[in-house]
């Protein structure tokens, strides 16, 4: 049997973080889970594409819009299951066992969130994200997504949005989206640059504005300031 999972990673100048993300996938390779690796790039000018090519990835390119990049990436992937990761996220040791168990139950799954730094604020922010995911079935993309292709197709796939593509898909999936007993460790760099409270507040305001119907193009411009 061919391996079931395609790894899909959207990138944009991710040369500093991508090696750790790819390195965390090695146990999946050893377990025979990974069929192919798709890097869907939005116009990187650093070493991202070189790293992807050295890793044996299929590289697809296009405009820098994470939703659009994920549309292209999932279309290029060959697996019956897709594991979508952000380039600044790595899977914690032991993830392959949890994923192997999930493969027997088609559907959609997200990982527990943790940050790559210790402290009170990282613990609180990650705790809120995990609570939000369980109560409201609204994980963000940095928590990773494991989904079989039939479930993704029935939900309409990723929407071509510059921001909130993960939330839009999660809302379509609803209660079909379940937690995995495995952890995705994401970079705290953005929180450290902006401040934990400020960044968390910005994320919450962006989510509320999206639910209120604000155009994702407008949200993306505000988010990147």
UniProtKB/TrEMBL annotation:
Keyword tRNA processing: no
GO molecular function, one term: glycosyltransferase activity
Pfam family, one: Glycos_transf_2
Keywords attached to this entry: Cell membrane, Glycosyltransferase, Membrane, Transferase
Key word Membrane present: yes
InterPro entries assigned to the protein according to its UniProt record, in alphabetical order: Glyco_trans_2-like, Nucleotide-diphossugar_trans, Trfase_2_rSAM/seldom_assoc
Subcellular location(s) of the protein: Cell membrane
Signal peptide, first to last residue: none
GO cellular component: plasma membrane
Classification via Gene3D superfamilies: Spore Coat Polysaccharide Biosynthesis Protein SpsA, Chain A
SUPFAM superfamilies cross-referenced by the UniProt entry: Nucleotide-diphospho-sugar transferases
Domain Glycosyltransferase 2-like: from-to ranges: 6-109
UniProt xrefs under NCBIfam families: glyco_like_mftF
Protein name, entry field: Glycosyltransferase 2-like domain-containing protein
Organism: Antarctobacter heliothermus
């Amino acid at each position: 049997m061919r391996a079931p999972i395609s790894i899909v990673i959207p990138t944009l100048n991710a040369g500093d973080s991508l090696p750790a993300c790819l390195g965390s996938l090695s146990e999946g390779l050893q377990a025979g889970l990974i069929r192919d690796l798709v890097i869907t790039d939005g116009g990187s000018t650093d070493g991202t594409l070189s790293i992807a090519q050295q890793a044996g990835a299929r590289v697809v390119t296009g405009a820098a819009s994470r939703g659009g990049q994920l549309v292209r990436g999932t279309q290029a992937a060959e697996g019956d299951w897709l594991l979508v990761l952000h380039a600044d996220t790595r899977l914690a040791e032991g993830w392959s066992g949890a994923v192997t168990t999930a493969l027997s139950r088609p559907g959609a799954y997200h990982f527990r969130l943790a940050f790559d730094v210790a402290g009170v604020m990282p613990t609180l922010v990650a705790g809120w994200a995990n609570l939000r995911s369980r109560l409201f079935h609204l994980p963000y993309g940095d928590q990773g997504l494991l989904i079989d292709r039939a479930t993704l197709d029935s939900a309409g796939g990723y929407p071509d949005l510059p921001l909130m593509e993960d939330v839009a898909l999660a809302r379509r999936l609803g209660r079909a989206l379940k937690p995995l007993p495995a952890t995705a460790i994401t970079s705290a760099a953005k929180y450290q640059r902006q401040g934990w409270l400020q960044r968390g507040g910005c994320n919450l305001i962006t989510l509320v504005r999206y639910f209120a119907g604000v155009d994702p193009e407008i949200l993306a411009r505000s988010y990147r300031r």
